[in-house]
Amino acid sequence: MGWLLELDTSGVRDLTLTGGDPPLITLRTAEEALLHYAMHSGAPYGRQSLPRLDSHDPLGDLRPALLDALRAPNEVPLPRVQMGAVTVLSSYDGRLHAIQAGEHTVTLMIDGEHVELLRDYAAGVLATDLDRELGTVGVLTGDGALHVFQQHVRVGVYPLDLALDGCRPTVFLPDGSGTVVVSDEGRACVFDTAGRVLAQATCPAELCSASVAPAGEWIVRYGGMRGAIRVHDARLTAVRQGTGDDLRAASRSVQLFRAGDDFSEGIGALVVADDGTLAFVQGRLLCCAHLSALAPLPLEQPLF
């Protein structure tokens, strides 16, 4: 049984899951604030205002004390925080941070020391992610390349046949797996950190949003004319599919909704946990349900 509630803001820019006790869902709003909710109940768990960085020198504002303060109310480091044009990705122990500053620079901070991974990269940075356990960083750039770093050491740069004419591709590095999951228009691929393709799948839906569980067990894509949510396992086998309507129908409301509330708007952000819990924002609605509420897809059978 899942839950759903109505938010007092419609400007949700990002959605993350933070472990700890209790595990939390964190929303970043257009007002540069973080709203926290208990993942298992939907109970409000606090609000934080994000610091404003100097637009001319944002990295100069990212002192160790500020980065260490980017924690949820349960004292766990936030996995991803965006402050203006700066996105900070943090390791589980909070000692390592991958920082994307604008669309051309990626920096690593280890125990307070800055290391430039990409500096003023001409082709631009499309997406960055961090293996929060091993410290591996993956960066997609506008020339269709995947850059992989093991902390500050460059592992390699691998050309990918990325679809760049639709929504931006996404990159995820599941914890401790040594793999990189890239999702773009019409396709999802799993690579190892040497750039070799381990699995790939054609995805019929236009990509609007994607998420990968921290351990890589679930790969979820949302998009298409009908707003389909499609779930793949770690081998990119499609296992479930449905819509936000299906997940809302399997959830209980934790508050009274106003008469005439319209939930026809598309899903703006979603995130999936290792246990199959999926949270998503749809207009002013926050819903948290389990992937089992989506219909299973028939598995391909070998022919003899």
List the helices and strands and how they pair.
Elements: E1 2-6, E2 12-18, E3 24-29, E4 33-38, E5 44-49, H1 58-61, H2 64-68, E6 80-83, E7 86-90, E8 96-101, E9 105-110, E10 113-118, E11 125-130, E12 136-141, E13 145-150, E14 153-159, E15 170-172, E16 179-184, E17 187-192, E18 197-202, E19 209-212, E20 218-223, E21 228-233, E22 238-242, H3 244-249, E23 251-253, E24 267-272, E25 277-282, E26 285-290, E27 295-296
Parallel strand pairs: 1-23
Antiparallel strand pairs: 1-26, 2-3, 3-4, 4-5, 6-7, 7-8, 8-9, 9-10, 11-12, 12-13, 13-14, 15-16, 16-17, 17-18, 19-20, 20-21, 21-22, 22-27, 24-25, 25-26
How would you describe this protein?
The chain is mainly beta and 304 residues long. The chain is built from three helices and 27 strands. The chain has helices spanning 58-61, 64-68, 244-249, and strands spanning 2-6, 12-18, 24-29, 33-38, 44-49, 80-83, 86-90, 96-101, 105-110, 113-118, 125-130, 136-141, 145-150, 153-159, 170-172, 179-184, 187-192, 197-202, 209-212, 218-223, 228-233, 238-242, 251-253, 267-272, 277-282, 285-290, 295-296. The strands form six sheets. The protein has a five-stranded mixed β-sheet with strand order 23-1-26-25-24. It has a five-stranded antiparallel β-sheet with strand order 6-7-8-9-10, with no helix packed on it. The chain has a five-stranded antiparallel β-sheet with strand order 19-20-21-22-27. A hairpin with a 4-residue loop joins β17 (187-192) and β18. The chain is globular. It starts with a strand and ends in an 8-residue tail after the last strand.
